[in-house]
Write a structure and sequence with these properties.
Blueprint: H1 16-28, H2 31-59, H3 63-91, H4 106-118, H5 120-124, H6 126-134, H7 141-164, H8 168-173, H9 180-186, H10 191-226, H11 234-269
Length: 282
Amino acid sequence: MMNSSQVDDPGDRLPVWLTICQSYGIVFRNLGVFMALALLPIVLTFTIQEISRELVNHWEWPRRVRLLLEEPFRWLFWTVFAVAWHRYALLGQRDTTAWIQFRVGWREIRYLFYSAVVAIPLLGARVPTMVLIQNLQELSAATALWLSLMALMAIGLGLVVLIRFSFIFPSVSVERPTGFRRAWKETSGAGWRIFWVTFLASIPIGVIDRLLREVTLAMEPAVTRLGGGYFDNMLSRWMLGTQLAQLIFTFLFTAILVSALSLAFKDRTKWAPGKRVSPATA
């Protein structure tokens, strides 16, 4: 999957644990910068979630409609933050001195395009997985086995594509020339180490994020039955708190992942910033 035979000098290999520790250091030593970059995406994501929840409940639409309403906006807000954090991790400074930052431009559009293309195999894995989950009792053992194999193959292909093209994202963020062929070449011989760096770095925050998401989903039906606003009863207030906490940890998860990928990118490509652009005034 990820050929490591091309790296002959062990001293030239991407240091997995050092890179993970450095990625956590970038995030947790700069929580003020994190909030400046993540605050507006978090608020906008929460707002879209609430609007879509109200629409689905009011019109009694299926829950999957809510996902269709939320996902494009969630992806856009995630992209804005991911690009901004890539730039901070690689350049060592924000693009503005304003107390919050939110920018949608050509580099964010390119980042969004590349992430959509790279995600196709992993998104494709959802099809056999959903068929398997929703129809498990009606499916024959042979059909269930084939669907499981199809899902696993799609996931495996998706991980290869994601890792081997991953350097596109930091490159786009700092407006460095890139493309699928160049990214594939630059990750050659380091695929497994890039995988372990990003995977292991994301586990602690990812587990907390997932737990908070499950708690929110468990509380939502009861809160809907109670009706009213978030401050009308204790359960609604707890759900509001878990929703906001989950969103914060989602963006912390992204910051850790982006930091780890940015450091791996610098290590493998030997990229260094040129003349830095002075921060714009608010």
